[in-house]
């Protein structure tokens, strides 16, 4: 395989990165997103990258695509009309839900609980029962299933969810009910809960399956449409979609499990940042991905992205493996405004791609963070976003002047105020994934990427105390780069519920081996060669009769009768770090998990030739505003930088996909991989 392409759809831009595995040559494309039909922007970006690289669409071997289709559908509640078939007597499972409010008393008073995605009138109960040990108490009423499915189809349902009580232990009834549903309506999108979540917690398992069905028809339509467009253009390679956990899976698997791509785009950036940080020798980093609409942050330890298994989109909390990413509505397109009390606010409303910030010259008139950067000279007037979009400086000033007039200050002060507020919003997000998780951010570096990330990263590193700041070679398209570095992967889990101290290692090994076999079979279906298979094993542990679960890594070969002491030590070390105490209680293995990976090759990048032991060549100088005064700051072209070049702030580094700001008192050095490593002073 020689030509791989990653494409990431954002709220404002669609980013494309094409890499030749043989030469390491990179080609970047950045086009405006097309919210009405994401595939139009995707195809335009792919064609632009291919034209620039000098290849045809038919020469691509692999396309890896991160999409916000599922995210948007759930948040905007624009999914399919779905029906739910469940155990008779449990039809209200989605209404009972789980107690949750968005805050303390006021949050509870002000919350308007949304209606379930499947209303009661589209829910049917059928006779069947499996007990908690998996034994069948009452056989499945197959005629009842047929009648329920036909009734729901007559009522207009477009997809179906089947979620029976205790199906995670014994899925036989769910699987038979699916067969019956497909006999009644061949081709009907059907999701069964045991395929998606093989764990206890009836509500979360049911909701996850409902969300899968809710999004499935449109995801099938989108993926099929994109594949058709690509094939019409001559593409005969493989299309993989990026998962929420930063791995990838085939288009076929995506159509079966769309709930697994709910956080597709942001995960790629975190994986790419972790990959580059490992290679830069800074395995512990915070990742800072600032785009046009939002900012996504994550924490990486030992070169690996933190993973969580509970996701939330809007009100809905469901079970899905994903990168532990925190998002805030702060991006380059975030709109600044004065609230009713006259206070300045920034975001979360965004100018998006159409019309975009005022400086885009596409009809936008409201002041945005990007416009504020233009006014302060941090986006120099001669710059072209994406190498093509010229900045309208006068339009940016007119937009920011609206805020300045309302505050009674000049436009420069207003622009700085907009930047300061946006930075504080993003600072708070970084604290969520570090301080609130029990980590000191001063022990971490910061990797900045996204189209707007390097513009603000120096200020964020200063605010949170992270050192060093790393700006990758292609920061504006690092999410697309992360897709190229991602493994094909999926997780397979089983509720276990046994005391570690009382369970022989051989028993645990037997359960793990079964999960490894499932993972291997899935990887085979994904066309991953057996030599590239890798497996990671985890046990979700908790103190007996507690429900705080912590995943602990297990070595398969270490599952002998002495494993329990090792497992307890790992669990209590992490429990103490998170919560500050230990208990004199048995440790219970709640869930066993196996992550199956199809390991990809490392990407060897072409980063230009030559090294330097001198300061970098200056392209020109511009007036840039820092610390209440204007500075004559040098402007550098990223393409002219070589390993060893040093840049002293204040300075601006321009490139096709992003702009990097180095503040006064800081200096950047280009490392052997082409990253700019920024530190305070002369360190």
TrEMBL record:
Any single Gene Ontology cellular-component annotation: cytosol
Domain Hydantoinase/oxoprolinase N-terminal: 5-183
Stretches assigned to the Acetophenone carboxylase-like C-terminal domain: 506-672
Gene that this polypeptide is encoded by: apc3_21
Protein known as: Acetophenone carboxylase gamma subunit
Molecular-function GO term, any one: 5-oxoprolinase (ATP-hydrolyzing) activity
Upper lineage: Bacteria, Bacillati, Actinomycetota, Thermoleophilia, Solirubrobacterales
Keyword check for Signal: no
Domain (Hydantoinase A/oxoprolinase): residue spans on this chain: 205-491
């Amino acid at each position: 395989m020689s030509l791989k392409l990653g494409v990431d759809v954002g709220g404002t831009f669609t980013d494309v990165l094409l890499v030749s595995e043989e030469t390491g040559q990179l080609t970047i494309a950045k086009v405006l997103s097309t919210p009405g039909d994401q595939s139009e922007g995707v195809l335009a970006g792919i064609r632009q990258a291919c034209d620039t690289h000098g290849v045809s669409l038919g020469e691509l071997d692999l396309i890896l695509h991160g999409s916000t289709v599922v995210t948007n559908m759930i948040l905007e509640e624009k999914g399919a009309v779905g029906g739910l078939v469940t155990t008779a007597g449990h039809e209200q499972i989605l209404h009972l839900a789980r107690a949750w409010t968005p805050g303390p008393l006021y949050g509870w008073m002000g919350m308007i609980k949304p209606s379930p995605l499947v209303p009661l009138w589209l829910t049917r109960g059928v006779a069947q029962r499996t007990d908690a040990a998996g034994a069948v108490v009452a056989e499945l009423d197959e005629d009842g299933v047929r009648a329920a499915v036909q009734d729901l189809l007559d009522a207009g349902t477009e997809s179906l969810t089947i979620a029976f009580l205790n199906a995670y232990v014994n899925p036989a009834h769910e699987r038979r009910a699916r067969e019956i549903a497909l006999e009644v309506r061949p081709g009907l999108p059907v999701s069964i809960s045991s395929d998606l979540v093989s764990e206890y917690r009836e509500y979360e398992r049911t909701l996850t399956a409902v969300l899968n069905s809710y999004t499935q028809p449109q995801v099938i339509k989108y993926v099929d449409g994109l594949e058709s467009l690509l094939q019409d253009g001559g593409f005969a390679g493989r299309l993989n979609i990026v998962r929420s956990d930063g791995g990838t899976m085939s288009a076929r698997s995506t159509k079966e499990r769309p709930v697994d791509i709910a956080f597709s785009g942001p995960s790629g950036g975190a994986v790419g940042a972790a990959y580059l940080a490992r290679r830069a020798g800074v395995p512990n980093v915070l990742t800072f991905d600032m785009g046009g609409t939002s900012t996504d942050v994550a924490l990486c330890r030992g070169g690996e992205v933190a993973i969580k298994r509970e996701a939330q989109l809007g009100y809905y909390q469901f079970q899905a493996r994903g990168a532990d990413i925190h998002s805030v509505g702060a991006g380059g397109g975030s709109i600044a405004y004065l609230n009713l009390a006259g206070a300045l606010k920034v975001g979360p409303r965004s100018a998006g791609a159409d019309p975009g910030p005022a400086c885009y010259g596409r009809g936008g008139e409201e002041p945005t963070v990007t416009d504020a950067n233009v006014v302060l000279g941090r986006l120099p007037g001669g710059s072209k976003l994406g190498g093509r979009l010229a900045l309208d400086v006068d339009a940016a000033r007119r937009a920011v002047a609206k805020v300045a007039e309302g505050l009674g200050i000049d436009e420069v002060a207003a622009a700085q105020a907009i930047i300061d507020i946006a930075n504080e919003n993003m600072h708070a997000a970084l604290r969520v994934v570090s301080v609130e998780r029990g980590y000191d951010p001063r022990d971490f570096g910061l990797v900045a990427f996204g189209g707007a990330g390097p513009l603000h990263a120096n200020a964020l590193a200063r605010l949170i105390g992270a050192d060093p700041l790393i700006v990758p070679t292609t920061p504006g398209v690092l999410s697309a780069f992360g897709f190229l570095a991602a493994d094909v992967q999926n997780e397979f889990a089983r509720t276990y519920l046994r005391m570690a101290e009382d369970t022989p290692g051989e028993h645990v090994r037997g359960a793990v081996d079964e999960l490894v076999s499932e993972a291997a079979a899935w990887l085979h279906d994904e066309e991953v060669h057996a030599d590239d298979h890798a497996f990671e094993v985890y046990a979700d542990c908790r103190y007996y009769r507690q429900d705080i679960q912590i995943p602990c890594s297990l070595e398969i070969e270490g599952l002998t009768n002495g494993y329990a002491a090792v497992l307890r030590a790992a669990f209590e070390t992490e429990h103490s770090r998170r919560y500050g105490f230990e208990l004199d209680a048995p440790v219970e293995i709640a869930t066993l998990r196996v992550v199956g990976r199809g390991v990809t090759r490392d990407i060897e990048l072409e980063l230009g030739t030559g090294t330097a032991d001198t300061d970098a060549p200056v392209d020109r100088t511009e007036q840039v505003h820092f610390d209440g005064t204007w500075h004559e700051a040098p402007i550098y072209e990223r393409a002219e930088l070589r390993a060893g070049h040093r840049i002293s702030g204040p300075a601006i580094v321009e490139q096709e996909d992003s702009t990097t700001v180095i503040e006064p008192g800081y200096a950047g050095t280009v490392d052997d991989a082409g990253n700019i490593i920024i530190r305070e002073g002369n360190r």
